[in-house]
Amino acid sequence: MALENKQNKQYSFIESEKKWKSFWEKENIYSFSRNSKKKIFSVDTPPPTVSGEMHIGHACSYSQQDFIVRFKRMRGFNIFYPFGTDDNGLPTERLVEKKKNVKAKEMKRDAFVRLCMDFLKEELPKFIQDWKDIGISCDWNILYSTIDKHSRAVSQWSFLDLHKKGRLERRDAPSMWCPECKTGVAQVEVQDKELDSLFNDIVFKVGDKELIVATTRPELLPACVSVFYHPSDKRYNKLKGKLAKVPLFNFEVPIMEDERADPEKGTGLVMCCTFGDQTDMEWQKAHRLPIKMAITPEGKMSELSGKYKGLLIKEARKEIIKDLKENDLLRNQKAIKHVVNVHERCGTEIEFIKSRQWFVRYLDLRKDMLEWGKELNWYPEHMKHRYFNWVNGLQWDWLISNQRHFGVAFPVWYCQDCDEVILAKEKDLPVDPTIDKAPVKECPKCKSKKIIPEKDILNTWFTSSMTPQISTRLMPESIQKKLFPMDLRPQAHDIITFWLFNTVIKSRLHFNKNPWKDTIISGYVTREGEKMSKSKGNIIRPQEVREKYGADSIRYWAASSKLGEDFDYQEKDVVTGAKFVNKIINATKFVFMNLKYQQKQPKLLEMDRLFLSRLNQTIEDSTKAFENYDYARAKLEADSFFWKNFCDNYLEIVKNRIYNGNEGEKASAYYTLYQALYSLVRLMAPITPFVTEEIYQEYFRKNENEKSVHNCVWPEKITIKESKNDETVWERIVEIIGKVRQAKSEAKKSMKAEIILTLSKEDKTLLKDFLDDLKSVTNSREIKEGNFNIIVL
RNA sequence: GGGCGCAUAAGCUAGCGGUAAACUGACUCGUUUACACCGAGUAUUCGGAGGUUCAACUCCUCCUGUGCCCACCA
What we know:
Elements: H1 2-9, H2 13-26, E1 40-42, H3 56-74, E2 78-80, E3 83-85, H4 90-100, H5 109-133, E4 143-145, H6 149-164, E5 168-178, E6 183-184, E7 190-206, E8 209-215, E9 224-229, E10 243-245, E11 252-257, E12 270-273, H7 278-286, H8 313-326, E13 330-343, E14 351-360, H9 366-375, E15 377-379, H10 384-392, E16 398-399, E17 401-402, E18 412-415, E19 421-423, E20 451-453, E21 457-458, H11 460-464, H12 467-472, H13 477-483, E22 486-492, H14 496-511, E23 516-522, E24 525-527, E25 530-531, H15 542-549, H16 551-558, E26 567-568, H17 571-593, H18 606-627, H19 631-660, H20 663-684, H21 689-700, H22 726-746, E27 755-759, H23 761-766, H24 771-778, E28 780-785, E29 789-792
Parallel strand pairs: 1-2, 3-4, 9-11, 15-23, 22-23, 24-26, 27-28
Antiparallel strand pairs: 5-6, 5-14, 7-8, 7-13, 9-12, 10-11, 14-16, 17-21, 18-19, 18-20, 24-25, 27-29
The chain binds one RNA strand of 74 nucleotides through strand 7, strand 8, strand 12, helix 7 and strand 13.
């Protein structure tokens, strides 16, 4: 019977989580108040990509930002914490294609977008549930998707505004191009990949003399426009101004000098083809060389290449090498490994192709960009170097057009005859020019009636860099001003150069303000030091962990990693969280087992005052850490105070008094226990929101005002007389208790064994007000004075 | 090649100019009036070499290892 009773009372995190989740939702505990006078704290929540389910990295980083938000909420802020999903890119396109069994390219764009919205309507609640399940305290009524109508309108507004500000250019220029995806590619979308290649020494001719040029890309010979050597290179400087004959193709190109040719590399001679790489482009510009395109946007050889026309790049390379060999024009071949730029999405080598693309012109702002980065408060601070490093290495204006099908459309039409750009009207946004009519019937410039739509789409970062506007513009205009600039942008370090950088740029170009005051950068979750990936099969599903140990345990684990540091997933760390949950439940049960609520502070016993003084220290440390976004430190302070001081020592000390004390002694203990536990519950509420809510509702609600612990005020120091050496005295008491336990342990006796304790004269004086409690907690028959000694009886 | 991190017990991590710490594990015990998902105790430690300092795990320099970002594409 007793056992049964006990089991019934055991804490079930499954039930508890379910109960409080629906309570929070029903009671709007986390909703942003539109007419509150409280100060606002606004968060530019990262919208996760809908491409599957939440992974452990999400669970970790969203928990971390949630700790901070919950702290701020308890500090009295009106929290603006929206939730979005990022759906206008390839991952969602692929997922919808798969689930709906369609091909995006075979559908009309608006039909696919609609299908996508339908899909999201079905799937989003399931997807979002994972976030709700780990206790993320967003206002779930402030929701957006980066492909929804509202986001498209904001993104297109951004385009119109940048156009108005003269920051947009449509240029017919060489730009990075992916022959596989057949789209222009932005600098940020390019990755490094080490590939095997061949360094070919091939023969150019000046009259009868042979010139050996080393190249990995002989297929670009038809696009060769010159041969360079370094000005100091004595082997070649007499050739200046002469012409060299290009092998196989037999046209002549000038031999020129340029600092950028490295005498150490290959033979010291390099051919310039427009465009093999970035240097080729610089040379083309610097020496006003002609432009010859050997490769088409499809990744095939152009008509320039004569008999090789139509071959794929790699096929042509093979053929040309074969022909060079046959004509004795290939002198040597060396296998090398070199790093090339590839498109991050498909791994295809990037080509430079002349095409017509839209750019945001911003290279002229590099100095300002550095300033903007400095204005931001970075947590941890060193992450700002990633931003500076990126700005310093910027080579290209921002290419924002993608020759893809699914995404946010350009709000643009053109006149087919004179190429005049015709922009959508702001009030008509969002538009899809392939469906919607242009706002004019004829070209305002040449009066032509032939108006054609822009078929390209805006790069996904063009839209996601608008999340501060997308989210805040969901609110009435009167509130928007208070929400922007936002307070906090949380995100991971891998997309500083993408999302963070682009958002800063947009905000500065549109509003001449930084989008937020602070940014917190989270690290990666690894598994035995390695990045988790499906191919390695080392994925941890947070859903399973939660079912096994509870959401509070996952969050407890997430709170043990410092901001910005990668950290390793270890199941036992989650177990530690589960132990904490169990411990605080049990400690609470004990405290309230025979406690009478004391609203007013009674006359406190010295021991209780001393303990509260130590609690105040913890409150101060934890608060300071949280103000600095150092949730890990804040948790550590509260958590270790709970175990070491509250459970291991204070509870043991007061036990006897609670059972056997007189009224005054009991009252003092009751008050101290209640205040200490109530403070601890609130200190841990941001980290473990479920169990703390459970405890609050069960034991504290009837005496306190707030509907939820998460709306309670963050604990403040308890008013007591503190004196300077409180800490030393408390530490000494804990130390003596420890020594006694050690003595009993070494004597292999029970902790309840009786002892005779001898304290030094100094100790006895220092601890004169604490001797009764000390006697009972150590179970001393008597406390003598003399040399420190413990006799276990 | 440039930039930024990291290196602390068997594992994972705190910490910091003043005689090293939590958790897990190991070992030795104890326990039934909060908690066996318990309690107590024991052992083990600051990558290497210099330097600054009365004092360095902590600051500086170099090295080694490791991670990320950027560049290198002839």
